[in-house]
Amino acid sequence: MRLTTPSAPVDVAALVPELAGQGRTTVRLHPRRGAPAVTESSMGGPLLWPADEAWPYCEASQHADPSGVFGRVAMVPVLQIYARDVPELPFPAATDLCQVLWCPTSHEPDHAPVLHVTWRDSRLVTGVRTEAPEPVESEADYLPLPCVLSPERVREYPSAWTLPESLDERIEDSGWSYQYHLSTAPGTKVGGWVHWIQDPMPMECARGHEMSHLLTVASREHDAESGRAWTPLEEQHLLGPYQVPELQEPADITIGDAGSMFVFVCVTCPDRPVETIVQHS
Ligand SMILES: [Zn+2]
Ligand SMILES: [Zn+2]
To answer: Is residue 4 part of a domain?
Structure first.
């Protein structure tokens, strides 16, 4: 199903000259519960994983038992995105599929899952693994329900945290809030601006390159306030004064207190190292 974000309620770039040239395009993935196939882009869906390739496991020391016996936890699928659906991802040469998994338990320092990203050429996958291994430990908050994706490109502006504090005063007559309605798109998305919930954190890879925002995995697509501007047109009639979990929390995950995981990538390093930050609302 095609989902369409309404036009911005206010042309904020016309009201705030500092925003000139700061518009970026993000790809809202619009996950919605469904039954995706391995050949489709998905959130929490089955991965196109070669039958003869090892599955990723988390080997964090916390998974060892108290006597120090080695333990490991099978990672679970979070996102699978084909280049035909979201060509904006920085696919390394000769790859067309981005697969994101995480270890579904809380880890230090963010009390969040450990993330793993694989890039591959889907055309080279002949025998497909039919079942993913079950994690021996998991927290229900980190087990995404299978969702199909409906990628949509939207224009957005930087988080209020990177702009002068006076900004909301300057647009208060509009009846809209910059952070909630006019800046960065909420929800799970690829590229664009980071929807910082607290102070922005500059990210560098181990070799000192500046990293860029790869994607965001969000607990919610929007809340009651941000939903005033970001609820897709096709779903507005379904939203009353109450939350509708299938629309607002389609994957039924909770990262911290309704927070988001921001995933950064180094596009200079050929192996595309990633780092994550979790912020809570
Ligand atoms: Zn782990
Ligand atoms: Zn690098």
So the answer is: no
pLDDT of residue 281: 66
Tell me the pLDDT tens digit for each residue of 65-80: 878 777 899 999 999 9
**Residue 267 φ then ψ, to 5°:** -90, 0
Q: Which ligand is nearest to the CA of 273?
A: 2
Closest ligand to the CA of 57: 1
Higher pLDDT, 66 or 45: 45
Q: What is the CATH number of the domain that holds 45?
A: 2.30.320.10
Between CA 280 and CA 135 the distance in angstroms is 25
Distance of CA 209 from the midpoint of ligand 2 (Å): 5
Ligand 2 centre from 208 Cα, in Å? 6
CA 27 to CA 53: how far, in whole Å? 30
Question: Which ligand lies nearest the alpha carbon of 107?
Answer: 1
Structure tokens at 103: 């270890």
**104 C-alpha to ligand 1 centroid (Å):** 7
The residue range of the domain holding 269 is: 12-279
Q: Is 175 left (phi over 0), alpha (psi -120 to 50) or beta?
A: left
The reply to whether 5 falls in a domain is: no
